[in-house]
Amino acid sequence: MRASLTLNFCDMSIYDNYLVVVMHEGINVLPEHNEILIEVANEYFKNQAFVYITHRINSYSVDPQIYFETAKIENLKGFAVVSNDYKAKSNAEVEKMFFNKPFGIFSELNEAVDWANELVNQ
């Protein structure tokens, strides 16, 4: 792990090819949260491809419009959702329609990590 960040709405673990984000319980993820993602991308992944992995341990909501802005991050190669919860996976299927880059849905974090590494190394 390269870095670990604790923010008022999430915890981020930053690795070489990806970052893993765990949103806090009850958060409503809004487009303005993208500003922080852009800052992290610029600081830790400048001129380097990476994948965003959201590990959905807690219950929270996402404004699907957020994906239009997230997809504009040039070096973001993909987005992964990790959850064992049926509802979270169903929501991710809807969210996927708003994102024009590779979008994976996984049950286990290690599956998402493998996918992220493959995507970045293509």
UniProtKB/TrEMBL annotation:
The organism's place on the tree of life at top rank: Bacteria
Protein name per UniProt: STAS/SEC14 domain-containing protein
